């Protein structure tokens, strides 16, 4: 099966994007780390990064058969209502990840409209958060 790794706007530039906030790992580093976590279960990582909400919705619609998903929606956490509807209809378990501790930042980042639908949320642990999300999905999905 596939594990869907979804990253939203401005996450393709990880490594050079405000590294003091988001760290120096690139998206390729994160993809490799997640792939390493789930390889033992035979899961393949299908990684999708898009700058626009509609394209992320397409990726979710195409991914109904995935074993699970990890999603960092970027700023779509704040008002991504269409993405929220897409996630409400998305059957596999999924975990929301934010690299930074959004609660320690501007107040507009304190509420994710997606988080109430997630199996779990991981914030503030940097790239490690993606690995932990992968471990949680492995534990959640029966082998
Ligand atoms: C982010 C936090 C969001 O508020 C921000 O818009 C991002 C990155 C994170 O991973 O910390 O793009 O999702």
TrEMBL record:
Q: Which superkingdom heads the taxonomic lineage of this protein's source?
A: Bacteria
Query: Which Enzyme Commission numbers does its entry carry?
Result: 4.2.1.10
The active site of this protein is located at 22, 98
Pfam families on file: DHquinase_II
Give the record's pathway: Metabolic intermediate biosynthesis; chorismate biosynthesis; chorismate from D-erythrose 4-phosphate and phosphoenolpyruvate: step 3/7
Q: Which GO terms describe its biological process?
A: amino acid biosynthetic process; aromatic amino acid family biosynthetic process; chorismate biosynthetic process; quinate catabolic process
Q: Which UniProt keywords apply?
A: Amino-acid biosynthesis, Aromatic amino acid biosynthesis, Lyase
User: Which residues does the UniProt site feature Transition state stabilizer point to?
Assistant: 17
Which GO-annotated molecular functions does the record name? 3-dehydroquinate dehydratase activity
Matches recorded under Gene3D superfamilies: Dehydroquinase, class II (3.40.50.9100)
The cross-references to CDD domains, in alphabetical order and at most eight, read: DHQase_II (cd00466)
Q: Which reaction does this chain catalyze? A: 3-dehydroquinate = 3-dehydroshikimate + H2O
InterPro entries to which the protein is assigned, alphabetical: DHquinase_II, DHquinase_II_CS, DHquinase_II_sf
KW Disulfide bond (keyword) present: no
Q: What class of enzyme is it?
A: lyase
* Entry binding sites for substrate: 72, 85, 99-100, 109
| The protein's assembly and partners | Homododecamer.
Protein task: Catalyzes a trans-dehydration via an enolate intermediate.
Record family assignment = Belongs to the type-II 3-dehydroquinase family.
Name of the protein in its database record: 3-dehydroquinate dehydratase
Q: Which organism is it from?
A: Actinomadura macrotermitis
Query: Gene symbol?
Result: yqhS
């Amino acid at each position: 099966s596939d594990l869907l790794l979804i990253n939203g706007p401005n996450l393709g530039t990880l490594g050079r994007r405000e590294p003091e906030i988001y760290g120096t790992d690139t998206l390729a580093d994160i993809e490799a780390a997640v792939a390493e976590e789930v390889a033992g279960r035979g899961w393949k990582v299908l990684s999708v990064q898009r700058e626009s909400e509609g394209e992320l919705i397409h990726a979710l619609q195409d991914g109904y058969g995935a074993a699970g998903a990890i999603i960092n929606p970027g700023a779509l956490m704040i008002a991504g209502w269409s993405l929220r509807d897409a996630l409400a209809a998305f059957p596999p378990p999924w975990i929301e990840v934010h690299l930074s501790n959004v609660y320690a930042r501007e107040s507009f980042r304190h509420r994710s409209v997606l988080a109430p639908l997630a199996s779990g949320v991981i914030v503030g642990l940097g790239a490690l958060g993606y690995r932990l999300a992968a471990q949680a999905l492995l534990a959640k999905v029966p082998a």
